[in-house]
């Protein structure tokens, strides 16, 4: 399911420039889950992924920009939603990163939903990539190991990770398992996805299916969790979304995954040709009369947006617009077609709208034919009356 909700992209500013080149424009990123496939574009920013994520950690000096007591991502709050896990690609000065954020941060816990637990098993991570952020990678700093997150990374994919809880399952590059409480978030950022042959598989386990959940001692599986222990940790993640940039990076949209259980593949594919729109319809229309315009596109289209003289109008089936004009003049009809292969394209058509014609005679005198008919009818009646009296 692809959402039609668009929002402005949050711009990240910083004094921390990087040196790496941005992703190659010869390929694009595609997300696959079962029969669901869609192309995505990275959110653009001026700071490294860890600064964009902006994890706040009380185990820092108060002079450190990351100091804070939220144990949450503060840089992604505009994208976060309650009881929702999001994925996105972020392109900063150091390359392209895969970012995951679970749940929504709240300063006022009265407005927050209970936390939950999530596990991701990742395979296909680039060998030259690195963990820009594992939130919360502080299990060795706290006494309550049961409520700490788990980071199990193989030897080739430990770069940037401060702690490690052992080897991941066989054949997996990393298993990350998070548990967080009411009003907080959890997540990660893995940098180094500007690869022409990228193919990462993410196998999720949400809520009670996660590797560990507060209130049970499964490591590995034993008894199911006890929701009465640690209720602030035992809420649920109900939605899973991918955030993708749109409109040349100025906005973003949410794409809902169809399953919380099925694995997701993140891959690069040759860049698609941008969609091209065309519009067919009449060059002239009459006031009050319905006319139809039809949009065509060179690629599979996700949506159509119609305007007449800049004012949005509704279409019954998307690709066609049936409309009647209220007044004479020149009207401009526009249709914007949107596809997964951004950017969108707009086609236009100009229509001359004229008043309905008034009934006329051959010599152009309005209503003359009616008078002729009335005179003829009167003559017939008079002639008939004369014959009756003779």
Descriptive overview:
By secondary structure, the chain is mostly beta strands. The protein folds into two domains: 2-270, no CATH class; 277-354, Immunoglobulins (Immunoglobulin-like). It has two helices and 23 strands. The chain has helices at residues 49-53, 368-389, and strands at residues 2-8, 27-33, 36-40, 43-44, 84-92, 95-102, 117-123, 130-135, 150-153, 174-179, 186-191, 199-206, 239-246, 251-256, 264-270, 277-280, 284-286, 290-297, 303-308, 311-313, 320-324, 329-338, 345-354. Strands 1, 4, 5, 6, 8, 11, 13 and 14 form an eight-stranded mixed β-sheet that branches. Strands 3-2-15-12-7-10-9 form a seven-stranded antiparallel β-sheet, with no helix packed on it. Strand 5 and strand 6 form a beta hairpin. The protein is elongated, with a radius of gyration of 32 Å. The termini are far apart.
Main attributes of the structure:
mainly beta, 8-stranded mixed beta sheet, 7-stranded antiparallel beta sheet, 390 residues, single chain, 23 strands, 7% helix, Immunoglobulin-like
Oligomer: single chain
Based on CA atoms alone, the radius of gyration comes out at 32 Å
Distance between the termini: 90 Å
Along the chain, the helix and strand elements come as EEEEHEEEEEEEEEEEEEEEEEEEH
What count of structural domains?
Answer: 2
Give the % helix: under 10%
